[in-house]
Amino acid sequence: MSDDLARLRLARSEGVGPFNHRRLLERFGSARAAIAALSRNPERFRPAPEAGCARELEATATMGGRFLFLGEPGYPPLLARLPGAPPVLIVLGDMAALAPRAVAIVGARNASAAGRRVAEDLADELASQGIAVISGLARGIDAAAHQGALAAKGRTIAAIAGGLDVAYPPENAMLQARIADQGGLLVTEAPLGTAPVARHFPRRNRIIAGLALGVVVVEAMEKSGTLITARLALEYGRELYAVPGSPVDPRARGSNDLLRQGAKFCENAADVLEHLPAAPTDAPLFRPRAPAPEPAPPPPMPEGEAGQVLELLGPAPISVDELGRRCQLSAPSLRAILLELELDGRVQSLPGNRVALL
Question: What is the pTM of this model?
Fold first, then answer.
């Protein structure tokens, strides 16, 4: 099994999301060893079939796509700094589009003509100055942003919610092809053949916000998906900008509210560049430790510390921070013990950084 095949199998395994993927690689050092460890708890974790992942690798390569694995060369550094960074990305196009300075432009699907013009002009100006323009290839503002960057013969990145071979929305099929063929890049987490559904779009939005140094919102209704991207940008420490809109247009209520909450005022590229930072360096890049030539079984878990943790756990969830205070273990030691107990089927991880006995 090649390294790429092992990494893809781990990423596609049932029960292994971004956080568990990172924990498993940190604990066992290689995807092969992590996959072997999953067999200790088959009800909780189920490795992806080797044959299916091999077909995915081959089919993606045949269409010119490429896999980028977290912690390996080529994976976008800004995205790698996020705790929930995607374990694997599939890309098609020019890797040079993953420029160190990039800005996302997002907004309403049912955008006004004026909003589309603003997005297109803003993308044109930014791309002309060497800034990569990121968006989500949706109708309206997203499409206008990609078109503006292409018109300037600049770089644009389209983060999509489906597979590389699925055009969504259908009317943007030609735009999707142009991006891949004219110096841009398509980016997704989804295997080939995946049709986007509602739950895929927030995951796509985190890629948009994670790749960018700043996010510009051009028209957004209240409670829209665009505001998810804006919220993620703030969580990731990115600059957030908003273009003001008419107070009587419901498509501008969300973006105007962002301005009231402190988003930076934006009318043109100069407004963006005035505040655009260098790449943040406060969080370390994720690097899995080098695997041994042959995966070895994990060392025996210290029974004393594991027993202490188990005594403190019950069926009622408890936060990992609170558990650490009670058992007086270091955070790395506690995480390692909890991972071992989860693989053995004795504890379960729950949302909100909580754990409980099974």
Answer: 0.83
